């Protein structure tokens, strides 16, 4: 998924872990996705105070949106560097195309994971015969410095491991949880899982001592006893022995966690880098590739999408600066 803001702010993330505040509620901001036919998404990460949870650096939550007789998601070809994109649907379908030649229909309960590495481009759209409801999440994972230049690749996992408890079930997208391990490729220690909680139940998730955690509410839930409304994220932090998620009715949430990311990162538009020059170079190469597309270019060519590729926004008038993973260690 693209950050399609025409004037994107500098989103600087990463940095050595510092003393953390108390658990904090991260309110999403509304962002239009997809130009003039845009649908709105809620973006909880990066947030004003907290920019990362482990290596997770970006979360968009959308829907449930009624897209009957509407185009739904329409994101033209756009570039990425230095990250992985995680696509997760609760309802509906999204058609992924990328510059490696992959075309994949994504449906609920299936993980599509794209590793950008040194450069890739892709498009995302609701297919012509789409379902009436679109509901899901898109997340990014920052790649560590020594792996951010890997060859780009794409994975689709239609049969993910599921751990069942008397209180609900956990579908493991990334990493390991409750004795189940995802087949998805990771580059830092982390976990990502969707939790389905039975009505009136409380799921108890054992926590890794060196992980920090957050919970993105896909419905109204309570996390460690604190109410979290749909689309909000509660940063739990590092140290508790467990994370508890409760729901009065049938509930859903995403558990995200990982070892605190100890690198300073500049994230601007759809690029994750370590300096202004690195991001500026990626932008310039995308503009060159976009206007003169060819298969051997850094970002390649996405075939099959009807509209032109996205133009990169102008860089800000001041140099992009890598800062810390929170505003407390900028």
TrEMBL record:
InterPro entries: Pirin (IPR012093), Pirin_C_dom (IPR008778), Pirin_N_dom (IPR003829), RmlC-like_jellyroll (IPR014710), RmlC_Cupin_sf (IPR011051). Residues 1-23 are annotated as: Disordered. Residues 194-290 form the Pirin C-terminal domain. CDD domains: cupin_pirin_C, cupin_pirin_N. Residues 44-141 form the Pirin N-terminal domain. Pfam families: Pirin (PF02678), Pirin_C (PF05726). Signal peptide: none annotated. Belongs to the pirin family. PANTHER family: PIRIN, PIRIN-RELATED. This is Pirin family protein. It comes from Saccharopolyspora halophila. The lineage of its organism: Bacteria, Bacillati, Actinomycetota, Actinomycetes, Pseudonocardiales.
């Amino acid at each position: 998924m693209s950050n399609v803001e025409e004037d994107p702010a500098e989103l600087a993330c990463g940095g050595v872990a510092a003393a953390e505040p108390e658990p904090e509620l991260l309110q999403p901001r509304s962002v239009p996705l997809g130009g003039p036919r845009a649908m709105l998404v809620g973006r909880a990460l990066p947030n004003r105070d907290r920019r990362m949870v482990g290596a997770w650096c970006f979360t968009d939550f959308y829907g449930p949106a009624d897209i009957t007789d509407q185009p739904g998601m329409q994101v033209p070809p756009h570039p990425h560097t230095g990250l992985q994109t995680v696509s997760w649907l609760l309802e509906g379908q999204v058609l992924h195309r990328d510059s490696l030649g992959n075309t994949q229909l994504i449906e609920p309960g299936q993980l599509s994971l794209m590793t950008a590495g040194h450069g890739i481009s892709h498009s995302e759209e609701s297919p012509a015969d789409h379902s009436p409801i679109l509901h899901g999440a898109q997340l990014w994972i920052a790649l560590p410095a020594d792996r951010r230049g890997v060859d780009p690749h794409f994975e689709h996992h239609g049969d993910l491991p599921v751990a069942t408890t008397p209180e609900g079930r956990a579908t493991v997208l990334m990493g390991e949880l409750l004795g189940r391990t995802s087949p998805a490729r990771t580059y830092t220690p982390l976990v990502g899982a969707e939790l389905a909680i039975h009505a009136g139940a409380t799921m108890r998730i054992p926590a890794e001592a060196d992980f920090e955690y957050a919970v993105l509410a896909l419905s109204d839930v309570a996390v460690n006893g604190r109410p979290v409304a749909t689309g909000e994220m509660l940063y739990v932090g590092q140290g508790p022995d467990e994370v508890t998620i409760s729901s009065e009715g049938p509930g859903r949430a995403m558990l995200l966690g990982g070892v605190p990311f100890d690198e300073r990162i500049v994230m601007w538009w759809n690029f994750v880098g370590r300096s202004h020059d690195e991001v500026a170079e990626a932008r310039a190469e995308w503009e060159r590739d976009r206007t003169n597309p060819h298969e051997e270019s850094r970002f390649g060519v996405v075939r099959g999408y009807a509209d032109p590729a996205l133009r990169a926004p102008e860089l800000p008038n001041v140099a992009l600066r890598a800062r810390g993973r929170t505003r407390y260690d900028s």
